[in-house]
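4.2 Preliminary Data

To establish feasibility before requesting continued support, the project team ran the inverse folding procedure on a target of 717 residues. The structure was first converted into the token representation described in Section 3, and no sequence information of any kind was made available to the design step. The complete token record follows.
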């Protein structure tokens, strides 16, 4: 790959210098890398379908924050311009002409010389003096996205086939299948010589192989080889075709050997060669991906015969920072395979502790690893930078915790991991791991999900659970908590759900005698969080929408009463600026925010504060107390992508230990009623928060409880 890369780079740089008469590679050395990464992160928002209006607003606001700074560097300007131009097109589709005009106006100011010169800048960026994967997968992805957008509106002087071939090469060499697929489709349409047509065939073969259609991919690879042999030196794509042809001929690099071994199903060789490739690659996402492939081969080849072998596998993954691969490949798929292997070993008579270790490691990947690692507030000075900081937190790999460590750190809790696997109807399994207090040996159950179980599970998910039949709730409760028992009086439960089961009516599902139930991304995250301290007279601060939300008024009135009775010291604020000033001026024990929340995912999620919409980034910039109550719809939802976070998780990252959040859209008056009772029990009677919420939930009339179950405590139990 290095020879191909260096020769191709010389072609691109020569073209850039000829057209621009500057040495762009030297110019790009001064780029603010942090700003580039933060801005390019916004491109991923456009990949979410459908693209919601809130997401587009988020892009414009984040770009405005950066654009207001001193003149950005050339690469930053070009990326901003391309991003805004594409965003403007989406606004036009929504019929929002004013926002579209704003986007196009700022884009034109950032790049007044048009798309042709932008293309040359972007090409220079991805063909610098380093291997592409050292630039960071998000940055490369954004440059490719921008190139694909700009080539569609470029002038006749730009050879589209040549540009698309460059994009396809960069996407292929960084494992970016999504961009490769788009580039190949466009390249096939733009190919104006036999050489470019052959390149389109070559990259189609790569897509087929990546999609596990190996036989079809190899057949197309042979078709490419035949076509490549007929491409003459006068063809503009001749050199690129020759280099592509060289890449499919057998050679002895570790990566090539690994790929060939994987294609022929030799898992032993594949694991060894991928492992060697990881050792030869600099630390970063690409090295993490090679390590993940090595361990995936061990799982597929049944090369992990014991709990000790699985622990060695986890150690290797941690050593190469496997979570950094989340922007390149499906990490969760491989970790799920490890979990199933651990369960297989347990069912064959081995100890169950390794099952809990792998299950919690999966939880760490889903977001737990971001908790308990406070960052200086400067990393959150804009929404885009805050989002990027959290991506970095999610990419940090942590050491697995043992059941003994969990039992010692959470001695009063039953810890329950819930995981659903299976891709086909009728082939789903539920794996439940239960760690009992002061007992390092967990109980493990893997149950086939019958049609009746599957129907009940679907009825108990998200907002649909409010209408779930009582029988469905009982069935799922029995499946989840069979190892605790239906009447375990005083039981405290910490649940680590997977992404499928995160948004469920947990206080309805909990065993009847349970004292409280808290959900967490992982047990390790709960252990890293500081316990919430009990104050003699708690200081509470809140911001409320008392105009539109009856429930918000109920919360504020309850806190006013507690303040008048001397149980708390209550401060009410009316804007984000007031909230920030108050938190800087004095310490508080509880922050409550009771406003509308939007359904959007990630940092385009909005809390509709009285002084205007706000992203979760605003919470990261505050000095948060240990307890945060978000009376906002969807504030604790499970995010749809592995590389983003919800508002509740942002609060935990910012230092809170417990967050009450909305798993879906719940009735605001009912939520206000539930929280008002929770405050009374917690702040007047001294009942711990998670127990107070459960008691308040059970005190509701039975017909109202399902509608209130969308509020849950997240974090440390």
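Position-by-position output of the design step:
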């Amino acid at each position: 790959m290095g020879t191909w890369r260096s020769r191709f780079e010389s072609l691109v740089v020569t073209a850039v210098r000829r057209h621009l008469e500057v040495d762009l590679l030297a110019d790009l050395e001064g780029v603010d890398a942090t700003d580039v990464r933060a801005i390019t992160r916004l491109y991923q928002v456009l990949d979410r379908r459908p693209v919601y209006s809130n997401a587009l607003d988020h892009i414009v606001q984040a770009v405005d924050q950066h654009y207001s700074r001193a003149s950005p560097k050339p690469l930053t300007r070009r990326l901003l311009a391309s991003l805004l131009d594409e965003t403007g097109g989406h606004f036009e589709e929504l019929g929002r002409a004013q926002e579209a005009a704003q986007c196009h106006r700022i884009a034109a100011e950032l790049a007044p010389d048009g798309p042709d010169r932008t293309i040359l800048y972007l090409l220079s960026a991805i063909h610098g003096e380093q291997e592409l994967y050292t630039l960071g997968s998000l940055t490369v992805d954004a440059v490719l996205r921008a190139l694909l957008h700009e080539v569609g509106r470029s002038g006749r002087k730009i050879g589209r086939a040549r540009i698309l071939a460059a994009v396809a090469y960069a996407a292929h060499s960084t494992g970016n299948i999504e961009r490769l697929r788009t580039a190949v489709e466009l390249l096939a349409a733009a190919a104006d010589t036999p050489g470019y047509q052959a390149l389109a065939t070559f990259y189609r073969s790569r897509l087929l192989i990546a999609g596990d259609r190996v036989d079809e991919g190899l057949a197309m690879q042979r078709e490419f080889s035949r076509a490549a042999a007929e491409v003459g030196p006068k063809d503009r794509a001749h050199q690129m075709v020759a280099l592509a042809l060289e890449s499919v001929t057998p050679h002895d690099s570790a990566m090539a050997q690994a790929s060939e071994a994987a294609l022929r199903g030799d898992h032993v060789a594949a694991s060894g060669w991928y492992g060697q490739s990881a050792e030869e690659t600099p630390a970063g996402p690409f090295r993490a991906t090679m390590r993940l492939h090595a361990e995936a081969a061990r799982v597929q080849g049944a090369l992990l015969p014991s709990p000790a072998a699985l622990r060695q596998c986890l150690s290797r993954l941690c050593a190469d920072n496997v979570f950094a691969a989340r922007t390149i490949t499906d990490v969760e798929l491989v970790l799920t395979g490890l979990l199933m292997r651990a369960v297989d070993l347990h069912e064959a008579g081995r100890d169950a502790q390794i099952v809990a270790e792998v299950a919690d490691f999966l939880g760490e990947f889903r977001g737990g690893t971001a908790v308990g690692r406070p960052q200086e507030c400067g990393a959150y000075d804009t929404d885009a930078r805050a989002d990027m900081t959290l991506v970095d937190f999610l990419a940090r790999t942590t050491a697995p915790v043992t059941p003994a460590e969990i039992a010692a750190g959470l001695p009063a809790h039953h810890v329950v991991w819930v995981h659903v696997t299976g891709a086909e109807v009728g082939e789903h399994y539920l794996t439940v791991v239960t760690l009992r207090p002061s007992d390092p040996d967990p109980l493990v159950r893997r149950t086939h999900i019958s049609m009746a179980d599957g129907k009940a599970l679907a009825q108990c998910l998200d907002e649909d659970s409010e209408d779930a039949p009582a029988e469905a709730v009982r069935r799922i409760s029995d499946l989840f908590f069979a190892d605790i028992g239906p009447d375990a009086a005083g039981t405290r439960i910490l649940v680590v759900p997977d992404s499928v089961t995160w948004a469920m009516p947990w206080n309805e599902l909990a065993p009847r005698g349970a004292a409280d139930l808290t959900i967490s991304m992982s047990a390790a995250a709960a252990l890293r969080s500081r316990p919430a301290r009990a104050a003699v007279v708690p200081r509470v601060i809140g911001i409320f929408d008392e105009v539109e939300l009856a429930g918000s008024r109920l919360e504020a009135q309850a806190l006013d009463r507690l303040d008048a009775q001397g149980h708390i010291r209550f401060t009410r604020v009316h804007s984000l600026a007031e909230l920030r000033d108050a938190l800087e001026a004095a310490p508080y024990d509880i922050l409550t925010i009771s406003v509308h929340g939007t359904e959007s995912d990630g940092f385009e999620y909005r809390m509709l504060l009285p002084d205007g919409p706000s992203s979760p980034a605003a919470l990261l910039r505050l000095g948060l107390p240990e307890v945060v109550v978000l009376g906002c719809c969807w504030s604790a939802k499970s995010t749809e992508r592995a590389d983003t976070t919800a508002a509740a998780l942002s609060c935990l990252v910012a230092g809170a230990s417990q967050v009450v959040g909305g798993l879906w859209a719940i009735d605001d008056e009912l939520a206000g009623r539930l929280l008002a009772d929770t405050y009374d029990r917690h702040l007047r009677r001294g009942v711990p928060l998670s127990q107070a919420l459960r008691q308040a939930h059970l005190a509701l009339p039975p017909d109202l409880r399902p509608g209130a179950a969308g509020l849950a405590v997240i974090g440390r139990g």
